[in-house]
Amino acid sequence: MELSFGGVSLEVAVSVQEVSSSQRRLTLEVPADIVSSEFHRAYADIQRRASLPGFRPGKVPLALIQAKFKKAAEEDVVEHLLKSAYRQAITNTHLEPIALPVFSEVAPPDPNKKMVFHVLVEVVPVIGPLQYQGLPISSAEVTIDESDIDAALRTMQETQGQLQVCPDDHVVAPSNYLVIDYTIRESVPPVSGRRQMGEMIQVGVGKLPPEIEEALLGKQRGAHLQVSVPMPSGQGEATGPRHTVHYDIVIQEVKAHIAPALDDDFAKDNKFQTLSALREHLRGVLLEEARKKQVQLQKDRLLNDLLDLHPVTPPPSWTEREIHHMMHQMGVSDFHAEKQAQLYELVRPEAVRRVAKSLVLHAIAEREGVHVSEQEWDLEMSHIANRARVPLSEVTKRFNQDKTARDEYREQMRVRKAIDRVYELARFEPSTGRVGPVSG
Fold it and tell me: What mean pLDDT comes out for the span 288-311?
C-alpha cells in the first residue's frame, strides 16, 4: 500500500486478520523514513506558530522546539499517520467498516524507527453459501372442535356479563367481588394507619394474601374483620426481621358476576339471528386464527433452521444497539445500576439472535431481489396510523424527518418479505398433529 506525502508515494505494509465473521484486525506498518519525514513536518509546523520569550514568532531555534514540544510533535505525528494510513488501508483492502474503528494504544513514535498500528474494524459478515430453498417443514391439519367453540362462547359470556349486588344474607363465595373499607396497622411509620375506602377486590382467585381470603369467605355484607398477615423481610419494610401487618376490614357490598344465558337472545345481542349462526361464525374466526397460528409457527421453525444453517457472529456494535433498544422498550432507565446490568446480560442472547436473523434474511433478500414498493410502504404507514390512532400525516411526517428511522423500518419490512419468500419455497411435509385455535 502506498501513502503520499508531499507528492512522494511511499510503501506502507498492511495485513488483515479475520477475528470473526464481523471483525477484522488491520496491522499497519509505516516505514521509518515516513515517520522521520512526519516529524520534520510536525516540528516545522510548531516552529512557525511557536512564540517563546526572547524570540520572534517563527524564529525559535529548531533544537529548542524539539526540546520543549517533543510530546506535541509525537501526538501530531501519531494522529496524522494513523488517520492517513487507516484511510488508505480501507481503500486498498476494499473493507466497508460499519462502525468507528478501535485503535490499539500506540507507543510514542521514534523518528528513526517504523511505526506499527493495530486497528479493529467491524464489517457486515458475508453469509454464504445460502441454503434456503426447499427447507422441509411439517404441515398439520387445521381443525376446530365443538369444545373450541364452547370455550370461545364462555369467554364471550364472561366479557359480556354484569356485576349484580347480592342480597344482604348472601354468603361470600369464590369469584365474588367485594367492596371493602380497610385500615392497615403496623409498626412501620410510612404505612401505619393507612386507610382505603371503597376498594373493589375479587376473592378466590389467588390475588389476595391467603389469610385475608380465608377470613372473607363465608362472611356477609356488613361484616367487620380483623386479620393479621405475617410479612417476610423486605415487604413493608426495607430491611429487618419478619413482621406482622394488621388489617381492619369492613365488607360494604358483595357482588356476583352474572353471565348471560347462551341462547338465541345472546346471539341477537351479538348481531346474529340464532345461536347456531353465532357458533358457525366463531368456527370460521377460530379456523382463520388457527391457520395464521400454524403459518407463524412454521415460519419460526424455518427461521431457526436458517440460523442453524448460517451461523454468524453479529457485529458487536449492532448487538449493543439492539440490547439498548430492547432495554429502552422495557423502561430499564428507571432501574438501578445493578438491575440494569442483570437485564443487560438477560437480553443479550435474544439481541444476538435478532441481529443474526436480520443478517441472514438480508442476504436472502439480496439474492432473491426482494424490495419494498412504494405502494407497500404507503399501506404500512396507513396500518401504523390506524394502530396508533393518529393521523396518517403525522406518521409520514415522522418518517420523512428521520431518514435513519425510515431506512431501518423499510429494512424490517424487507426482512419480513424475505422470510415470506423462504416460506413460499419450503417443502411441506404432512404431519399427523393437529393445530387448534390460538390459546389465551
Answer: 95
